[in-house]
Specification:
Blueprint (H helix, E strand, L loop, with lengths): L1 H18 L2 H11 L2 H10 L6 H23 L2 H10 L6 H23 L2 H10 L6 H11 L2 E8 L2 H19 L2 E4 L8 E5 L4 H13 L5 E4 L3
Helix pairs in contact: 2-3, 3-4, 4-5, 5-6, 6-7, 7-8
């Protein structure tokens, strides 16, 4: 009786093994289409010809899971994390585009909040082709649309010498002193301050006039 029972158990176990064939297990893994299912197939049949295919499907599933997580978060950190996990993933290019876009949006918000010439210039240097680049240029133009004109000199050598003198004397008020070459029919070089706002230009010119330095506020040279 005992021997019959043992024989029956052995036969049953053999039947189960037979049922658990590579083809059946591969079909089961495909139906479940999960990382766990393909990992189980590899564990059960490590020498099967489809092991490499199973590994590829595991990688693809992990890539899709990581991308879904990144999209769900829709944050700079989320997309950067995806790129760290899947640098060669199917969605790496899209993730990089998202990273660039979000960084660009953050830089634009910073430029707008500070609302300074330096801020807008920094934004344009980093993102010259951004959708908001034209807005940045317009904002920059408003902030740097004026200069203080100090003198007009025919000789380039004399203009450079006078510009250096005025820069040494009034550089902190004028931010900088530059020589603007002749344009149009004019044969004289102009000595001007750095571009600045209208209010800053007026304040600087008023201070220079108190020091008996001729000046006038003019529009910046384009």
């Amino acid at each position: 009786m005992k021997k019959s029972f043992l024989v029956l158990c052995v036969i049953s176990a053999g039947a189960l093994v037979a049922c658990s064939s590579p083809n059946a297990d591969w079909q089961k893994a495909n139906q479940q289409n999960s990382v766990a299912a393909y990992q189980q197939f590899i564990q059960q049949h490590p020498n099967d010809a489809r092991v490499e295919q199973a590994r590829n499907r595991i990688n693809a599933l992990k890539d899709e899971q990581a991308w879904a997580t990144a999209q769900s978060a829709n944050t700079l950190d989320g997309y950067q994390q995806y790129l760290q996990q899947e640098p060669n993933g199917m969605h790496a290019a899209d993730a990089q585009d998202k990273v660039t876009g979000l960084q660009q949006d953050a830089a634009w918000q910073t430029a707008q909040s500070t609302n300074t010439a330096a801020g807008y210039q920094d934004f344009l240097t980093k993102y010259p082709n951004a959708p908001t680049a034209d807005q940045a240029r317009e904002a920059l133009k408003k902030l740097t649309g004026y200069q203080v004109r100090l003198a007009s000199v025919r000789s380039k050598t004399a203009a450079d010498k006078l510009a250096q003198h005025l820069k040494d004397k009034f550089g902190s008020d004028l931010q900088d002193v530059v020589v603007v070459p002749p344009s149009g029919k004019s044969k004289s070089s102009e000595i001007r301050s750095a571009p600045m706002t209208e209010s800053d230009a007026k304040a600087a010119c008023a201070k220079l006039k108190k020091a008996h330095q001729h000046c006038e506020v003019v529009k910046s040279v384009s």
